[in-house]
Amino acid sequence: MIIEQAQYAWLWWLLLPIGSIIGGIVAALSDRDAKKIAILGLPASGKTTLFQKLGASSANDSQVNTSIRDIEEFTFQRSNGEKVTIAKTKDLGGQNEYVKLYENVIEENTFIYFLLKMEDLYLNNSLSIGKTKMLPIKSRMTKIKKIITDKGIKKHSMGFIITHFDEYLKNNPAASEKVIESDIRYAFSLDKKSIVLIGNLLDNDFITQIKDRIGMQNEQ
Length: 220
Ligand SMILES: Nc1nc2c(ncn2[C@@H]2O[C@H](COP(=O)(O)OP(=O)(O)OP(=O)(O)O)[C@@H](O)[C@H]2O)c(=O)[nH]1
Ligand SMILES: [Mg+2]
Hints:
By secondary structure, the protein is α/β, with parallel strands linked by helices. It has helices spanning 2-8, 11-33, 47-54, 118-121, 134-150, 165-171, 177-187, 204-213; strands at residues 36-41, 68-71, 74-77, 83-86, 89-92, 110-117, 156-163, 196-198. It folds into two domains: 1-33; 35-219, 3-Layer(aba) Sandwich (Rossmann fold). The protein is built from eight helices and eight strands; from the N terminus they run ααβαβββββααβααβα. The model has no long low-confidence stretch (mean pLDDT 86). Residues 43-49, 62-66, 93-94, 163-164, 166-167, 200-202 line the site of guanosine-5'-triphosphate. Residues 47-48, 66, 91, 93 line the site of magnesium ion.
């Protein structure tokens, strides 16, 4: 009996490569299902806050002035129960110096979300978009378009998430989300398929709204 056991002991060694093959397949499958997103935007617009609220573990402490932070793959749930896995990506600071790193997070099939605070776009105490305020946004959009062309990306989607609406409402209680949305669609020549979400990232209802829309295939 002991001899028989010794004869077959080598079989255990077979389990190691089999285990790593199975592990590889599982990793490849989860990679295939993971959605690629890029959260970009102006400084202090809420990029780190959004990663954190979506459930990215590496972005636990929201701090203004992010440089570059690795975001590991993470999962969240939509209100209909659907689980969404987000592929490994990076949380880039909003300063000009990080714009050149956009190419590291934009690939084939990436859902790109551009974050802006209301005050990045609208003049103080006003219901109209400030033309000069558009310049840093437009230069970043030009960079994004160049990356898409240079990399020969065939499929991507572009959405806008406008944050700090709560603060803007204090000075402009008559502001209408519908009017702002159509201003933004016009200003950035967005088609109907692109999402435009306006709200307060510190409000969980807005986060639910984002979770329900982020990475949706019909945006493409
Ligand atoms: N009132 C309000 N505060 C917000 C909102 N979104 C984010 N904040 C706050 O704004 C500050 C900046 O948010 P961050 O998430 O650090 O911004 P960021 O875009 O990552 O900033 P950088 O990495 O420096 O580019 C934090 O104190 C957040 O709590 C919002 O919609 N409303
Ligand atoms: Mg940040």
